[in-house]
Amino acid sequence: MIEKNYQPADIEARMSVVWEDSLAFKAGRPDRRDAVPFTIVIPPPNVTGSLHMGHALNNTLQDILCRFERMRGRDVLWQPGTDHAGIATQMVVERQLMERQQPGRREMGREKFLERVWQWKAESGDTIINQLKRLGASCDWSRERFTMDEGLSKAVVKVFVELHRDGLIYKDKRLVNWDTKLLTAISDLEVQQTEVKGHLWYLRYPIEGKTFNPEDPSSFIVVATTRPETMLGDTGVAVHPEDERYLKLVGKNVILPLVGRKIAIVADDYSDPEKGSGAVKITPAHDFNDFEVGNRHGLARISVIDREGCLDLVDNEDYLRDLPEGAAQFAEEFHKVDRFVARKRIVERLESFGFVERIEPHTHMVPHGDRSNSVIEPYLTDQWYVDAKTLAKPAIAAVRSGETNFVPKNWEKTYFEWMENIQPWCISRQLWWGHQIPAWYGPDGKVFVAETEEEAVSHALGYYVEQEVITAEQGREMALDRNKREGFITRDEDVLDTWFSSALWPFSTLGWPADAPEVQRYYPTNALVTGFDIIFFWVARMMMMGLHFMKEVPFSTIYIHALVRDEKGAKMSKSKGNVIDPLNLIDEYGADALRFTLAAMAAQGRDIKLATSRVEGYRNFATKLWNASRFAEMNHCAVPDGFEPAKAKETLNRWIAHESAHTTREVTEAIEAYRFNDAAGAIYRFVWNVYCDWYVELAKPVLLGPDSPAKDETRAMVAWARDEILKLLHPFMPFITEELWEVTAKRDGLLALAQWPLKPAEPTPEQLAMLAAAAGPTDPLVSPMLVMPIFDHADFTDPKAEAEIGWVIDLITQIRSIRAEMNIPPSTLTALVLVGASAETRERAPRWTEIIKRMARLSDISFADRAPDGAVQLLVRGEVAALPLKGVIDVAAERTRLDKEIGKADADIKRAESKLANEKFVANAAEEVVEEEREKREAALARKAKLLEALERLKQAS
């Protein structure tokens, strides 16, 4: 029995237990042993994370695909898991220690600190997994993985060792994004560009051999900088090779102010003659672009800022080299001074000597750490790198050849641009929490990379015996006695970038490098659903690693979803106070309503503008389905054994079968094409408009009438159509549909495992051969009819039934529209004249007269050869119907009202177009504000079009 009121919280808790107890989502179920696999790996959320709207969208779309394919008979593996999130997790635990006034990380030591992190993970690390379950995610939770599980850690070590052996991992001194607060390198993804109001300092650099005179421009070159403190590390000045102002100076030197070091003037395209003075200072150790310029011209790299963001000048051999006498004193004065304090002092010193030409206010983007919020420093340091350029080549080719496809396709361009210009990938992090790099250093600094410490020791002892650093006897003793080799080799303290381990996710989660049967069955995966912001950091790296180690692409389709923004189109952020918490929406409206909202708005390539009112609206949609199902139950609607909808006799019932087949095709094709919004839109229209508003309403006279064969058939068809709805809607709204299926369908088995309404077609011999080849000898093809993802779209149709019921619906709809346009009160009944009606219309009209009169508020329906005077004419499926309105409405007053409304619409259009024509407004206003004006204009234009149409109709009644 269906409860009177729809209560999503009760249903969600109950259905979650039902699914879990029945192992509904387990991959490799016995009944799917011979089915074709369908695999998706979840983008592993950070173990520190909590469900946000991006997660809700991403996982809703994945779940739609998984539930859809599970119902189509596939052996679905939706692989869940979490990422250890190196920096984020370490920060959480360190903050916790600080808040509890307990010893910090350094005081505890590495081993004890890591024990504490694992303890935190055991206590709090499953938060987001439980929240994903609340959303309804149908992952195989028995296979949950963590990037630092033992098996995944083995995969990480093996990959590192093999790439190092192949020369694709190496150590190098390069610039990195350095967080001076967290004291580690961070990835580009962890850097946020923040607009800052600062200054641009124009500095005079004296030309060697000339007497510096601030009044004589020929005695110096002017360079502009936003970071005067880095000038201490300048090793060159660059000018454009075609800039005639400086051609004679190329190859000469300038004298670095304050320091006195001679630095070269070089010609390089990096310098823009149109910007500033056309000359730029080059600091290779403190700027990524300058680093490349320095490489091109062999300029020295002098690092003058240390790990903590302070000037590092004393005992800095690179800085002190080639300094004139007296400069060392300057070094001591500024040593260990914070970079921003040093900036102010250096500018003061430069001004006192006349080296500052001018200072201008300057707004520019400054990189900040997304977690520490400190200004990121380009820092020259030894780090481990992956030769991404070599690994990228097969990954580029795979997308170009179509082995892997992006949806929408335009994201391929972004992928190619990144991959074709890819830089070495810095994979080392100066943290404790993470996969410790499997590299050990000998007493002379030689590196030994190995999968285990014992293997590294063996390599090291062999090497040093061969080099005669130790004797063979010493080597044997050290191999046997750990104490005798203590300190002989030491392990690299750094850990790997979290993206390194997550790059292996599609195959490490399946058991690789062990010879696990799951690797053979579920790799490669079918689809990856992710956001555009990690195409470079995760998608590209999975492509590279998958192709290198598995020799196959990790997924055939990459679906890139858009951002979820607030209702005005602004990006959600805590600082704006516009963050919408999905868990609050689930609490208030239910997970189904939130899921359907996100799916319905997930148009390819378009950001989602999420308003709470939309979620509330889809909660009402769920309530509508609930009430319709309850109405069916109260009227004893049930599907009898052996019922065949295609054999229905009643026109109305054949029509709903026709519409159901049409909607099933629409929904199926849309999900297959990743058009989630179109699929949601099709099922929404069918449930609300077709089934509830029309079919149930048109069926009520029969259902409420005397017993008859027509009533029996209609009861069966109402229930059958309801069950088809539950199947089609299940991937989008799993909780309510499973509940109604259990209560009303009265069938054995779960809806989650029921067969999708569109049945497989008979496969061709070629398709059977392809499936058998894909299955292989260990996965025999037993039931191709069950597993083939090939469907016959030529399902049930009845054009005659559609023509008749469609005519009834269109006629009532147009009459209602005109009554609304003309402000005709519901209590006022109007007549209807069918003009020059065809034989079909004359034959069908009497069958539906009473229903049309009741639903369209008519007093009478008649036939005539011509429309009466003063009637508004309608064109319904090629035939004319007329509503005589003379005496029913005040035509003059109605025309005045419409003219007034058209004037308001014109004013709104003009106001919006005026703003949009203002280039300054479009350039300076926030993106969401401009978009809002565009929407206002479009809404006003649409409103005006409807008003003009109504005015034109009114002329007919004059």
Automatic annotation (TrEMBL):
Q: What is this protein called?
A: Valine--tRNA ligase
Outline the extent of the Aminoacyl-tRNA synthetase class Ia domain. 18-610
Xref: NCBIfam families: PRK05729.1 (NF004349), valS (TIGR00422)
Q: What is the lineage of its organism?
A: Bacteria, Pseudomonadati, Pseudomonadota, Alphaproteobacteria, Hyphomicrobiales
Q: Let me see what the UniProt entry remarks about domains.
A: ValRS has two distinct active sites: one for aminoacylation and one for editing. The misactivated threonine is translocated from the active site to the editing site. The C-terminal coiled-coil domain is crucial for aminoacylation activity.
UniProt keyword Cytoplasm, yes or no? yes
Q: What does this protein do?
A: Catalyzes the attachment of valine to tRNA(Val). As ValRS can inadvertently accommodate and process structurally similar amino acids such as threonine, to avoid such errors, it has a 'posttransfer' editing activity that hydrolyzes mischarged Thr-tRNA(Val) in a tRNA-dependent manner.
User: Which segments constitute the Methionyl/Valyl/Leucyl/Isoleucyl-tRNA synthetase anticodon-binding domain?
Assistant: 653-829
Quaternary organization: Monomer.
**Annotated catalysed reactions:** tRNA(Val) + L-valine + ATP = L-valyl-tRNA(Val) + AMP + diphosphate
Q: Where is this motif: 'KMSKS' region?
A: 571-575
- Alphabetical list of PROSITE patterns matching this protein: AA_TRNA_LIGASE_I
Q: State the species of origin.
A: Bradyrhizobium symbiodeficiens
| Domain Valyl-tRNA synthetase tRNA-binding arm, chain residue ranges per copy | 890-955
**For binding ATP, which residues are annotated in this chain's numbering?**
K574
Chief location: cytoplasm
The question of whether Chaperone is a record keyword is answered with no
Q: Which UniProt keywords apply?
A: Aminoacyl-tRNA synthetase, ATP-binding, Coiled coil, Cytoplasm, Ligase, Nucleotide-binding, Protein biosynthesis
| Entry similarity comment | Belongs to the class-I aminoacyl-tRNA synthetase family. ValS type 1 subfamily.
The entry lists its GO molecular-function terms as:
valine-tRNA ligase activity
Coiled-coil boundaries:
895-957
Localization per Swiss-Prot or TrEMBL: Cytoplasm
UniProt superkingdom: Bacteria
What EC number(s) does the entry state? 6.1.1.9
